[in-house]
Amino acid sequence: MKRKFCVITGTRAEFGLLYWLMKEIQMDEKLQLQIIATAAHLSPEFGKTVHEIEKEFKVDKKVEMLLSADTTSSIAKSAGLGMIGLADALHELKPDMVVLLGDRFETLAAAFTSAISRIPVAHIHGGELTEGAVDESFRHAITKLSNLHFTSTEEYRKRVIQLGEQPHRVYNVGAVGIDNFIRLSLLNRDELEKRIDFSFGKKNLLITFHPVTLEESTAERQFGELIEVCRSLEDTKIIFTKANGDADGRIINEMIDRFVQTHPDRSVAYVSMGQLNYLSAMKHVDAVVGNSSSGIIEAPSLKVATVNIGDRQKGRIKAVSVIDCLPDSQSILAALQKVYQKDFLNVCQSIENPYGNGGASAKISQIISSIPLDGLITKPFYDIPVNV
Asked: How many whole angstroms separate alpha carbon 246 and alpha carbon 226?
């Protein structure tokens, strides 16, 4: 009998990272892939990206959970709705294991529901730090609700063990997103310009900025500082990808729309570019700007600079191609000026990505297909020996 592995995904970025693992499971004759799409995937406001999944895979269940608001109370209520819907979906699908990635509230709802349902969870990208986001707590909570762990660096593996997880259940496999650069044929500039109906210029930036969820009502002010810098830039084309469904995400998206409306000749915005377009754009820009994890984890593989603004990604391991700056216009502008300095450009061309060189999806698939499932649901706490 085939082992049934259920991948639960709620956002466009998460699906892009899970894509090759889903392909590995799908191609393994010993495994059966199940997919539950939820949250932003089902929302027209966020591009209804479930259609992108359905181009490649069968979606077994769709679980509505995302309320049409971006307040903290609506996010909490959405998580509750997710647990209700996921409980029914998991009861019907009866998977042998649930596969989750990351640190979002949708993922926490899925981990909690799986644990209550006595279904073991394989968690990808645990042990990381994002001190400016409430997701920091979510990620560690998901670790404690999970039974197998696949981290992106050895330091993160040690941190998961520090949380009391058995070492033999924690695997450092590298970042799954890097598989895209090995297994996808990225578009050249002409192909990309035709696909997104936008022409690149002398200088080009890819901007993704999300709310810093541990800071109250800072989204408008911080993103306003970045917009002020964008207005001042000369000979620069800008591609915006919009914020996710976190609290205050709509504020950022409205500001993006206003900027693009007043600067249509040099900017464009997308709710969802799709993985191929997004990564191809990353390849052809001078820098990834904002506070998205893609600038930290994926951009270094393309030798592309990252301007990382504010505290959302604070604590993450970073390549030397990542320039940290404060969320104010002066600091952002100084970071952008560094991007174009010859010495820094040379540094970018010689960097190694601390998140590995790819192959994580195949490693994870091999492990979950062969590991004994009996007794996996129990979680004896691992105490690290301490010299007193």
From this structure: 19
> Are 149 and 376 within 8 A, CB to CB?
no
By the 8 A CB rule, do 375 and 189 touch? no
Asked if 315 and 246 sit in the same domain, the reply is yes
Task: Say whether both 10 and 149 belong to one domain.
Answer: yes
Residues 132 and 250 in one domain: no
Contact status, residue 24 vs residue 362, Cβ threshold 8 Å: yes
Which value, in Å, is the radius of gyration of the alpha carbons in the chain? 20
Task: Record the tokens describing residue 182, joined without a space.
Answer: 């090995």
- Give the CATH number for residue 100: 3.40.50.2000
379 located within any domain: no
157 and 248 housed in the same domain: no
Q: How many residues does the chain have?
A: 388
Residue 228 burial (CB count, 10 A): 14
| Nearest CA-CA partner of 12 in 292, 283, 274 | 274
Domain total of the chain: 2
Does residue 195 share a domain with residue 144? no
User: What letter does residue 178 receive in the DSSP assignment?
Assistant: G
Domain residue limits at 323: 188-349
Query: DSSP of 21-74, one letter per residue?
Result: HHHHHHH-TTEEEEEEEEGGGG-GGGT-THHHHHTTS---EEE----S--SHHH
Q: Which residue has the tokens 């408008």?
A: 220
- As averages over each run of 10 residues, the pLDDT of the chain (388 residues) reads 95 93 96 96 90 96 88 90 97 98 95 98 95 85 98 97 97 97 94 96 96 74 96 96 81 95 96 92 97 95 96 93 97 97 94 95 96 94 80
* Predicted pLDDT at 215: 65
How far apart CA 253 and CA 261 sit, in angstroms, is 12
Residue 375 lies in a domain: no
